[in-house]
Design goal:
Elements: H1 3-24, E1 33-37, E2 40-43, H2 44-60, E3 65-68, E4 80-88, H3 90-94, E5 101-108, E6 111-119, E7 124-129, E8 134-136, E9 139-141, E10 153-156, H4 166-178, E11 182-184, H5 189-197, E12 203-207, H6 211-223, E13 227-229, E14 242-246, H7 251-262
Parallel strand pairs: 3-4, 10-11, 10-12
Antiparallel strand pairs: 1-2, 4-5, 5-6, 6-7, 7-8, 8-9, 12-14, 13-14
Helix pairs in contact: 1-2, 4-7, 5-6
Length: 264
């Protein structure tokens, strides 16, 4: 497997899927939405984008399996797997809002080796590989150098169905509203993460997430010089359903706040 050969194909696949979704939004109406679960939506756009991605990525790397939001394909037990979200920010999309993104990660056993996030509404393509740095439309990106949480702009997201931890989560929001430059909620975890990677946010945290929401974006943050962990400071952030992503300078302080409030 040569990542340098595969990468342009992945970028192309993400851009084509994102551009198709963007073109469909002009005629999209809410009666085209299917309900998968409480506040959990899907449409023909998600499904078609996923089919586009699976076809393109299957040609780029036939030996890899798929872990995909809409269930296309099957996981490859031999080690190589694509983790894809064809439309991260579906709720935004169906209401005519931005951002929404295509997210693609390639895992080799237990490590991510490639990540691509295409935020369609701004036509911004973020990517990173194991052997290189992180990029936005071909230009290198880095996380911020902000030194304190008090001087940080923070992104978060709200759970759609798992409210079992909502009380302490609201307490974290209260803390950061009082002790930072502010909180933002964009509605796309993949976009939040790459915005940390390129320095638009200093930190992002959320729970109730799936692997396809975070795998690519988290990897891009790390390759941009940031730090990613779960709420306890561990490494279970891709499959563990919770994530913290920050620059290096505020990571310890930020994680301590989350851990202290969420786990008492």
């Amino acid at each position: 497997m040569n990542i340098d050969i595969v990468l342009p194909q992945v970028i192309g696949a993400a851009q084509r899927a994102g551009e198709w979704a963007l073109s469909e939004r002009e005629k999209f109406t809410t009666d085209m939405v299917e309900v998968k679960g409480k506040h959990n939506f899907v449409s023909y756009v998600d499904k078609h984008c996923e089919a586009m991605l699976v076809e393109a990525l299957g040609k780029a790397l036939p030996q890899a399996g798929f872990i995909a939001e809409e269930g296309t394909g099957s996981k490859n037990s031999s080690g190589l797997n694509w983790i894809i979200d064809p439309l991260d920010g579906t709720t935004n999309y169906i209401h005519g809002l931005s951002p929404f993104a295509v997210s693609i990660a390639l895992m080799d056993n237990d490590r991510v080796v490639l990540g691509v996030v295409y935020e369609a509404s701004l036509r911004e393509c973020f990517w990173a590989t194991e052997s290189g740095g992180a990029f936005l439309n071909g230009n290198p990106i880095k996380v911020t150098t902000t030194q304190k949480v008090n001087d940080s702009l923070i992104a978060t997201g709200f759970p759609y169905y798992d409210y079992s931890r909502i009380s302490p989560f609201f307490q974290t929001m209260d803390y950061f509203m009082r002790n930072s430059h502010g909180l933002r909620r964009l509605g796309s975890a993949a976009t939040d993460l790459v915005y940390v990677a390129c320095g638009r946010f200093d930190a992002f945290y959320e729970y109730g997430l799936s692997p396809w929401d975070v795998a690519a974006g988290a990897f891009i943050v790390e390759r941009a010089g940031g730090k990613v962990c779960d709420f306890k400071g561990g490494n279970s952030y891709i499959f563990g359903g919770e994530i913290i992503a920050t620059n290096l300078n505020i990571h310890q302080e930020f994680t301590s706040v989350i851990r202290g409030i969420m786990f008492g």
